[in-house]
Amino acid sequence: MAGVMAALVLARPFRRGPSCLGRLFRRGAGGATCGPRGRGARRGAGDSEVLQKSLRRGVVLSTGAFLVYGAHKLISGFAEVHASFKVEEVVEQADYLYGSGETEKLYRLLVQHKNSDDAELLWRLARASRDLAQLSSTSAEEKKQLAYGALEYAKKALEKNESNSAAHKWYGICLSDVGDFEGIKTKIGNAFVIKEHFQKAIELNPKDATTIHLIGIWCYTFAEMPWYQRKIAATLFASPPTSTFQEALRYFHMAEEGNASSFSGKDTDPNFYSKNLLFLGKTYLKLNNKKMALLWLSKAKEYPAHTEEDKQVQKEALELLNSM
Predict the structure, then answer these.
(1) Please, what is the Cα angle at 126 between 214 and 138, to 5 degrees?
(2) What predicted TM-score, i.e. pTM, was given to this entire model?
(3) Is the distance from CB of 167 to CB of 155 less than 8 angstroms?
(4) Are 314 and 278 in contact (CB under 8 A)?
(5) What is the mean pLDDT of each run of 10 residues along the chain (324 residues)?
(6) Which residues of 85-124 are buried (b: 16+ CB within 10 A; e: fewer)?
(7) Interatomic CA distance for residues 227 and 162, integer angstroms
């Protein structure tokens, strides 16, 4: 560290202060005239020598202060780099645990960073909180706490970085989850906001098939809405959210088959998500197309179960197939 400091000091020329400082060194007994003229403005030889000594001492002190300042900057820089590497390491660990289906370990890892200012950590914590709430082993009270906690983390992620696609996506998901605890009025009222965040997520990351799938879920939900909920929505909102199963089907196919030209013009990954397969089958059932429903529900049933959600998808797909 000392060697680095010395190299920086030698490489950087000393910058003198105001012009009057230079004049004081150049002038001797004639006296300096820096500052207002008047009583005491002209000094004798003794005063000049004392002043010069004081100024030289000030330069030494200034150089020492510069060294301290430089050390502070270097240490701060190293700390910032270290913090950056730490975030990257946590994100890498989190993504590995998520891919491995280690929901509880993932949550324990990320909740340690709940006060972070990094949007990448925060939206992952929102996702982990929600995933933990979805586990069958989680109590009803814990599910509620985790749902509201997830929404706060997603909201904070958005505050830190409004250009983060995943933050918009998970804010929309978590806002929808909280609606389950606050009644039909809140859930319907939040629907417009949820869709806006999904659309913003796609705008920021057109290749994200899961967000396209989520808009499909949004459409399916309002196409399936019972008549009494439609009546409530009509009394609460001048233009309540509506959709059709045909519209939902279009989004599910866009996500599954890569026919997302209106978003990106690029292919997404087929069989990317068990739930998309399930909803393709369910939507075809709603449209009375049993042949296509059988095709997609069979795919959902045979999808490898890596997570508890995959297992639930397999179970529901099997039940629907048996009912057919």
Answers:
(1) 95
(2) 0.68
(3) no
(4) no
(5) 37 34 31 36 41 44 44 42 69 93 94 95 97 93 97 98 97 95 88 95 92 96 90 82 95 79 43 91 98 97 88 96 94
(6) eeeeebbeebeebbeeeebeebbebbeebeebebbbbbbb
(7) 37
